[in-house]
Amino acid sequence: MMREPYLSDLSDGQWALIEPMITAWKQSRVARSATGDPGSCDLREVVNAIFYQNRTGCQWRMLPHDLPAWSAVFYYFTLWRQDGLDQRIQELLRCQVRERAKRLEDPSLVVIDTQSVRAAAGVPKTTTGLDANKKTPGRKRGLAVDVLGLIIGVVVVAASAHDNAAGTALLDQAAERCGMRLEKALVDQGFKEAVIVHGALLDIDVEVVRRNPEDKAKGFVPQPKRWVVEQVNGTLMLHRRLAREYDHRPDTAASRVYWAATANMTRRLTTPSPAWRDEIAAAA
Predict the structure, then answer these.
(1) Secondary structure of the chain in the HEC alphabet?
(2) 124 vs 245: CA distance, rounded Å
(3) In angstroms, rounded to a whole number, what is the distance separating the alpha carbons of residues 258 and 153?
(4) Are 107 and 181 in contact (CB under 8 A)?
(5) Residue among 154, 168, 158 nearest 257 (CA)
(6) Angle at the Cα of 150 (from 234 to 257), degrees rounded to 5?
(7) pLDDT tens string for the chain (284 positions)?
(8) For residues 114 and 187, is the Cβ–Cβ distance under 8 A?
């Protein structure tokens, strides 16, 4: 019996974008399995359940009954996180979005920033801390994005960790995923000399973008190019599971960012963009 669709469900076109990666993973998993049993769970519905939970912020056990059993969804979510499939799907879609914008697959410039997110009750204290600057208890989510707002790297650490720890890890991820084409990274004043030195070791020019002192009286003033990462943080917050740190493991929290980015990019690739947006992307 067909169920009524949820707003977060994949359309046929969106599923066609990621289905080959999931099918290849399933075939590889069957080949490594001792029994050779491919399993009977509908993996499209599993992805729908992950998108539903990301978007609504519900608990595992509160997934709707017309979606796969929460235990099955949790099983595949964990397995895909461990195998890195969530990241590989996100990277494949990122390359397609960049190609659609008439850009090379890998960027030459990334923008790095961190955001402190409060942790929910029950999240282990061993993985959280207090951001002394923002007075926020929880975790620090670091992102590396390109100028189109596409995620290159994700790091989740305790909020008490210095921005340098997140910055160096993000530079390592960006260098690994973008290769020799990556030349420059933009960061804010929270990142110190250690990040600049680490970038130099990777042949990446790290530029600290400083605020104009005259802008302090005006409040928040978007800075050229660096504002993109702020926009990405804002769009991620539309996925309510990311509005607060609910997951016990930092790598699970990072996986949720990859799935949120996947949901955003599948819509982006299957929805015709307005002409004005194409013009902005071409001029950026």
Answers:
(1) CCCCCCCCCCCHHHHHHHHHHHHHHHHHHHHHCCCCCCCCCCHHHHHHHHHHHHHHCCCHHHCCCCCCCHHHHHHHHHHHHHHCHHHHHHHHHHHHHHHHCCCCCCCCEEEEEEEEEEECCCCCHHHCEEECCCCEEEEEEEEEECCCCCEEEEEEEECCCCHHHHHHHHHHHHHHHHHHHCCEEEECCCCCHHHHHHHHHCCCEEEECCCCHHHHHHCCCCCCCCHHHHHHHHHHCCCHHHCCECCCCHHHHHHHHHHHHHHHHHHHHHCCCCHHHHHHHHHC
(2) 11
(3) 9
(4) yes
(5) 154
(6) 60
(7) 588 999 999 999 999 999 999 999 998 887 665 445 556 789 999 999 999 999 999 999 999 999 999 999 999 999 999 999 999 999 999 999 999 999 999 999 999 999 999 999 889 999 999 998 888 999 999 999 999 999 999 999 999 999 999 999 999 999 999 998 999 999 988 888 999 999 999 999 999 987 766 555 555 556 667 889 989 999 999 999 999 999 999 999 999 999 999 999 999 999 876 554 565 555 55
(8) no
- pTM for the model: 0.89
* Residue 169, both tokens: 């890890």
* The residue count for the chain: 284
Our CA dihedral for 224, 226, 230, 231, rounded to 10 degrees, sits at 60
User: Which domains are seen in the chain, by residue range?
Assistant: 85-283 (3.30.420.10)
Amino acid (1-letter code) at residue 92? L
Hey, what amino acid is at 120?
Answer: A
